[in-house]
Amino acid sequence: TTIPSAKIATMPHTTSIPVGGATKPETIEAMAGNWSNFSFAPIRESQIARTMGRRYFSDLDKYAESDIVIVGAGSCGLSAAYCLAKARPELKIAIIEAGVAPGGGAWLGGQLFSAMIMRKPADAFLREVGVPYEDEGSESSFVVVKHAALFTSTILSKVLQFPNVKLFNATAVEDLITRKDGNGGIRIAGVVTNWTLVSMHHDDQSCMDPNTINAPLIISTTGHDGPFGAFCAKRLVAMEALSALGGMRGLDMNTAEDAIVKGTREIVPGLIIGGMELSEVDGANRMGPTFGAMALSGVKAAEEALKVFET
Ligand code: AHZ
Q1: CB-based contact 203:244 (threshold 8 Å)
Q2: So what's the ipTM on this one?
Q3: Per residue in 225-255, pLDDT tens?
Q4: Candidate from 75, 168, 222 with most ligand 1 atoms within 8 A of CB, to mutate
Q5: What is the pTM of this model?
Q6: Which residues line ligand 1 (CB under 6 A)?
Q7: How many CB atoms lie within 10 A of CB 92?
Q8: Measured CA angle at 68 (ends 201, 122), to 5 deg
Q9: How far, in Å, from the CA of 306 to the mean position of ligand 1?
Q10: Atom number in ligand 1 closest to CA 231
Q11: Of 18, 80, 102, 296, which has the fewest Cβ atoms less than 10 A away?
Q12: What is the pLDDT of residue 19?
């Protein structure tokens, strides 16, 4: 497979910096000591407004029909996005993230500590993405990334460089698009979206209709139950596509991580659920501050998604 990020890495970043001053330095080294002659290139505000707006609306247009929508850009959703975008550069992948900052719970380890624990064999995923880690030896059951933010920033930078991925952050999925399947059931055919701040104000403002994205496959990784978490799982119950949620159980690192990875699957046609959202569906234990299952659940979600595209 082609890795588009490799191509992007060779693109020149700083070879030509248009500036309006007397000097036109092409590197930051050339600017040093010459600040009295410095000025930025002239600009008009509307150019900025048009550039941002045009790109965003062109993305809305392009991704209104996506191949895959990933709901939630936490450690599981980002891992799934990485694997899918790398394996199938022709697929259009939209990531919808309710927060302004993508990354979910993966900016810190447990109790807001810095270190991120990754249970073996998920160290294979760290090597794949290029995240450095410390291994405390072959007897150790886990490796340590010195700061969780190093994992999250590295995978984010890789995912965002794939030309077939668009992240819509500050945007919430507030419903699912459904179609009747031939057997009296439903299949999921897309997502209903809105600005997160709008979604949060449906109770005190009226007439704030949402937008939509059609896609034959959704991967939901919205985390465990919370104001936004487990969103798609809860919606499946409300629409009677699932009879009830199992509800996340207490913490047991030994059982929890295996259960989440093995259980990552298409729950109803067109909707794969992975990461901690799955614990709410299956009544699986939580694992707390170890992230191996989140990475490998993302890997499995991508594999399940590719099976759907291959059939
Ligand atoms: O903002 C949410 C977060 O970034 C986002 N999200 C939730 N609902 C959404 C919605 N629309 C769009 N309706 C939404 N985005 O989903 C992301 C979930 O990330 P996460 O880190 O919470 O979930 P994860 O399953 O990838 O990782 C969970 C890691 C664990 S395990 C654990 C425990 O055992 O206690 N706790 C955590 C945080």
Answers
A1: no
A2: 0.98
A3: 988 889 999 999 999 999 999 999 999 999 9
A4: 222
A5: 0.92
A6: 71-77, 96-99, 104-106, 172-173, 221-223, 228-229, 231, 275-277, 286-288, 294
A7: 17
A8: 100
A9: 23
A10: 13
A11: 18
A12: 53
